[in-house]
From TrEMBL:
<dbReference type="InterPro" id="IPR011611">
    <property type="entry name" value="PfkB_dom"/>
</dbReference>
<keyword id="KW-0660">Purine salvage</keyword>
<dbReference type="GO" id="GO:0005634">
    <property type="term" value="C:nucleus"/>
</dbReference>
<dbReference type="GO" id="GO:0044209">
    <property type="term" value="P:AMP salvage"/>
</dbReference>
<keyword id="KW-0808">Transferase</keyword>
<comment type="similarity">
    <text>Belongs to the carbohydrate kinase PfkB family.</text>
</comment>
<keyword id="KW-0460">Magnesium</keyword>
<comment type="pathway">
    <text>Purine metabolism; AMP biosynthesis via salvage pathway; AMP from adenosine: step 1/1.</text>
</comment>
<keyword id="KW-0418">Kinase</keyword>
<comment type="function">
    <text>ATP dependent phosphorylation of adenosine and other related nucleoside analogs to monophosphate derivatives.</text>
</comment>
<keyword id="KW-0547">Nucleotide-binding</keyword>
<keyword id="KW-0067">ATP-binding</keyword>
<dbReference type="GO" id="GO:0004001">
    <property type="term" value="F:adenosine kinase activity"/>
</dbReference>
<protein>
    <recommendedName>
        <fullName>Adenosine kinase</fullName>
        <ecNumber>2.7.1.20</ecNumber>
    </recommendedName>
</protein>
<dbReference type="InterPro" id="IPR029056">
    <property type="entry name" value="Ribokinase-like"/>
</dbReference>
<dbReference type="GO" id="GO:0005829">
    <property type="term" value="C:cytosol"/>
</dbReference>
<feature type="domain" description="Carbohydrate kinase PfkB">
    <location>
        <begin position="48"/>
        <end position="170"/>
    </location>
</feature>
Amino acid sequence: TVIHLRQSINQSINIMSKFEGKLMGMGNPLLDISANVGQDVLDKYDVKLDSAILAEEKHQPLYKELVEKYPVQYIAGGATQNSIRVAQWMLNKYEKTGMTAFMGSVGADSYAKQLEDCAGADGVLAHYMKDESTPTGTCAALILGGERALVANLAAANNFKPSHLETEKAKEI
């Protein structure tokens, strides 16, 4: 299966070498906050390894705790944004930079800035709609012994408005 996977990846990369347009995705942007944690954190927040759940009220302090108590890695996440990042990574092999863009809704907070910086570092042009009243969506990736649990707080990611597509930057993309 590993050989088949490599062949499939190489075939996809060859297709990307012929790519001439721009690829734009729209979805729920989440700032992934990834940290190696102990079983105590999983127990405290009632989270099981190898699970992916939507955050409840009891999970809200988790994100701040990770940032304050653990060395974290920030990653531009959310399913569609991840796909766009991978496409850009594949295009980079052929020196086709700046070929991807992403739109979604974020809060007007420091997590939004971090998310935009992460997407930009991956070569993706992020044009986020800013929701002044809701925080940026986050996803805690709790890693223990090579396994992980994901706790997603969609927050502003749920609030995209079609009017954002009428902005000048959106039209340029």
